[in-house]
Every structure is written in structure tokens, then in C-alpha cells.
Amino acid sequence: TPPAPPLPQLSDSDARVPGAHNDLLGRKNVTTFLNVDGFVRRFVATVDNLPREHAPSRMWPVHPVGSRFATTGSSDNATIALDNAQRYTPLVLLAEQVDPAAAAGVYFKLYPLFQQAFEELGYPGKYFNDRLVAVIDHLLAAPEPQGPVRVKMVEVKSDTPMTQPWAHYEYADPQLEAMSAGQKMMVRVGLVNERRLKTALKAFRAQLVAGAGAVSQKK
Predict the structure, then answer these.
(1) Given pLDDT bands bounded at 50, 70 and 90, which one contains residue 162?
(2) The pLDDT of residue 66
């Protein structure tokens, strides 16, 4: 097997990363699901943001799902609709189809780029792989509510006049609403999807831990 060509600079990585994704996921899946423009920085920033209060969608390495958030019941007693989970099913299926060993192989091959982007965020001397494993553990600890999850609509205040008020949903349970952005996402996808994603995350985590020894050589 010929040696892999040297990695580009982080600023030029968009020319290399999509090809690695195409080999792993297939070109159609990459086009459908991933935002490859600045993918390395997007991935690192989003991973770092998931345990925080906000993980801005403008930085996501994946495209947001297209359909609208679905609820059922009255405005005073609304719950997340059962069929809302279907919005996330294609992405969950993709996660299940990816071979975790192959995904880890691509990740470690590109690791110096992830590490550089992580240090740019303000983490000199720290390993991105450690942060990624810790964030996966955080997502795995997300609660698994049994039964309908109640939500409430909250109007967003703005100093700019709007013809139609902008509102978003929050969890009615204060404990759920106090969760991080990442754990809120895990609950929002529905119980079945949440458990399927956790299974995929555990398999990927195992590969990250197994290959962690090579990280220091690629930093």
C-alpha cells in the first residue's frame, strides 16, 4: 500500500476531507447529510459545544433536518409527537451503517487537523481526543424519559419589530430544560433513536480509546 500523502494545512483541508468522507459514507450520503465547508473546524467546535448550554446550528458539521418539529396536544399540554422521531431516522440509520473501526481509521488519519482546530479554540497542550471521549460519555449519560415528553412554546423577545412573533419550544420539565444542548438533542430524537445512537456512540468510543495511544504521535 503506498503511503498516504501528507496532510494539507488546516485552512486547505476542505480539499482532502470530503474525499475521506466519500470513501467512508458514500458521496450521496456526504452530499445529503454533511456540511463539508470547513468541516474540521465545524466538527471540533460542535463537539466542544455539545456539553454546553448552546451548540449553534451555524457551526454544525451536519445539515439540520428539513421537516418541522412536531408536537401534539393543546398549547397548555403539548408533548413531542411520536412521529417527530421520524425526522431523525435517516441520520440514525446512517450512524448505524458506518463501521466504527473504519470511522476511527479516518478520524485518526486526519487527527492532526482536528488537534490544530482544537488548539485554535483555546486548548493548547490538550488533546482533542480526550475531549471527544468525554463528550461522548456526556451524551451517553442523557436521560431516557419514558412516555410523552411535555414541551411549552416560549416567545422570543426582540427589539426589532416583527410582523409575526418568533417562538421556540422548551422542555416543560425544569430538569430536562436544564440539560446541555447535546443531551437535549439526544432526548429530542425520541427514545428508540436515542438508544440506537447510544449504541453507535459506544462502539465508536471503544475505537477512540483503543487508538488513543497513537494520538500523541500525531499531535
Answers:
(1) very low
(2) 82
pTM, full prediction: 0.90
- For 14, 62, 96, 113, 197, the CA distances from 90, given in Å and listed in that order, are 25, 12, 10, 28, 12
Residue 48 C-alpha cell reads as 466542544
Transcribe the chain into DSSP letters. -PPPPPP--GGGGGGTHHHHHHHHH-HHHHHHHB--TTHHHHHHHHHHHTTSS---GGG-SBPPPSSPP-EES-TTSEEE-GGGGGGGHHHHHHHHHS-HHHHHHHHHHTHHHHHHHHHHTT-TT--HHHHHHHHHHHHHT-----SPPEEEEEEPP-SS--SS--EEEEESSHHHHTS-HHHHHHHHT-HHHHHHHHHHHHHHHHHHHHTGGGHHHH-
What is the per-residue pLDDT for 67?
Answer: 84
